[in-house]
Amino acid sequence: MAGTRSLLLLPGDGIGPEVMRQVRRYIDWMARKRGIEFTVEEGLVGGAAIDAQGVPLTDATLEKAKAADAVLFGAVGGPKWDGLGFDMRPEAGLLRLRKELDLFANLRPAKVFDALVDASSLKPDIVRGLDVMIVRELTGGIYFGEPRGIEDLGNGQRRGVNTQVYTTAEIHRVARIAFELARKRGNKVCSVEKGNVMESGLLWRQEVTALHRAEYGDVELSHMLADACSMQLVRNPGQFDVIVTDNLFGDMLSDEAAMLTGSIGMLPSASLGAPDADGKRRALYEPVHGSAPDIAGRDMANPIAMLLSLGMALRWSFDLHTEADMLEQAVQNVLRTGMRTSDIMQPGMARCSTSVMADTILRELDKLAA
Ligand code: IPM
Ligand code: MG
């Protein structure tokens, strides 16, 4: 269905706009060199939306996100908006998108590129060849559970409350994604919770086990407590294939896994909803890194995570696997030449800017497409 692929770009704050600019260049490249066209719209989110429109995400932008085949999201937040209440913070724009688009499954691959084995803080032997997929539940758990709030108890005391809550259906739908993914990879799922202290964790373990027994007996399933998992991720990350876990543990474990790869500036993610009658899923793609206000506007950020996020969109939303492979190959080839943005800089390598990294990737794509 050429010509009907629609993308909504939400660059956001900090380094979001400058890495998103490189995505635009790649989209132009696709049209020029591959004859693959996207209809592209752009909108505001996060602090940029607060400043211009008074809220972190307007209803109009939300409607555009619902209508698009895929949303590409940069990053949100910064010191300027730190003092605002929860509903008005830049992050609220992202959380609203996740919730209202019902993007319950967050796929966060942590893959070590050969050329970056030495950039990890762990020994090369431990991280070489690492390829873990974290599937994080994204629309439930303590992020959204009720009751929540800060209550004034009167006597100079206050009480802060959040609620961890999961239902069978919420657990099954995300576990299903993990099992399906595992079948296409190493065929192993490790389900992670704190069933030793939390009822919601115990339910998680029981429901994943039940679904496994009923439908996915061919996949190897193990269970791990979240604290043990965070330890095993640095001790022996190679034991993992797919990890499935809740919203909060997934948030933490995915940052940890990302750092194993040397830089959080390298990692993309996909947030997916349920397939509709035509098999199409709502989807949002974003780099795992944040808005990095300290380096924003200086042409220093690593554009690779953002570009690879578009790569995930090519795979999951547009079935453009050849193009996605080519983009990943181009990134690997460029890293092999020694080109590095500051975040992955190492002795003996050549430091480059955001735009030069993107230039070089596009030139490499020219070669691969020739
Ligand atoms: C992430 C981020 C978000 C989260 C923030 C920005 C709300 O840390 O995507 O991992 O906690 O989910
Ligand atoms: Mg996080």
Automatic annotation (TrEMBL):
Residues at the site labelled Important for catalysis: Y143, K194
Entry protein name: 3-isopropylmalate dehydrogenase
GO terms, molecular function: 3-isopropylmalate dehydrogenase activity
Pathway recorded for this protein: Amino-acid biosynthesis; L-leucine biosynthesis; L-leucine from 3-methyl-2-oxobutanoate: step 3/4
SMART domains on file: Iso_dh
Record's subcellular location: Cytoplasm
Binding site for NAD(+): 78-91, 290-302
Keyword NAD: yes
Cofactor comment text: Binds 1 Mg(2+) or Mn(2+) ion per subunit.
Family classification: Belongs to the isocitrate and isopropylmalate dehydrogenases family. LeuB type 1 subfamily.
Sequence positions that bind substrate: R98, R108, R136, D227
Species, as recorded: Rhodocista pekingensis
Domain Isopropylmalate dehydrogenase-like, chain residue ranges per copy: 6-361
Cofactor needs: Mg(2+); Mn(2+)
Reactions accelerated catalytically: (2R,3S)-3-isopropylmalate + NAD(+) = 4-methyl-2-oxopentanoate + CO2 + NADH
Binding positions for Mg(2+) per the UniProt entry: D227, D251, D255
Function noted in UniProt: Catalyzes the oxidation of 3-carboxy-2-hydroxy-4-methylpentanoate (3-isopropylmalate) to 3-carboxy-4-methyl-2-oxopentanoate. The product decarboxylates to 4-methyl-2 oxopentanoate.
Xref: Pfam families: Iso_dh
Domain of life: Bacteria
UniProt enzyme class: oxidoreductase
Quaternary state and interactors: Homodimer.
EC number from the UniProt entry: 1.1.1.85
Key words of the record: Amino-acid biosynthesis, Branched-chain amino acid biosynthesis, Cytoplasm, Leucine biosynthesis, Magnesium, Manganese, Metal-binding, NAD, Oxidoreductase
